[in-house]
């Protein structure tokens, strides 16, 4: 699943470690999410959405659906 995590993180000038701390996960998990090697659990996806104050659909892109309109 594609996502906009790296872009959203960069807009806030956060490191992967900064985001990891806010989410309660490891920096390696953030890296795996950003590179698409790992899809988040639903609870983690909700935490990510809350941290960025955006709906899940604005962050994660279903490859079968394309970007959210």
End-to-end gap: 17 Å
Largest sheet: 2 strands, antiparallel
Strand content: 5-15%
Task: Look at the helices and sheets and give the structural class.
Answer: mainly alpha
Q: Please bin the fraction of helical residues.
A: 55-70%
Describe the fold and architecture.
It is a single chain. The chain has 69 residues and is mostly helical. The protein has five helices and two strands. A two-stranded antiparallel sheet has the order 1-2. α2 crosses α3 (27-34). The longest helix has 11 residues, at 42-52. The chain is globular. The mean pLDDT is 92.
Summarize the structure in short:
This protein has 69 residues and is mainly alpha-helical.
Helix-strand layout with pairing:
Blueprint: E1 2-3, H1 5-11, H2 16-23, H3 27-34, H4 42-52, H5 56-59, E2 60-61
Antiparallel strand pairs: 1-2
Helix pairs in contact: 2-3
Properties at a glance:
single chain; two-stranded antiparallel sheet; 69 residues; 2 strands; 6% strand; mainly alpha
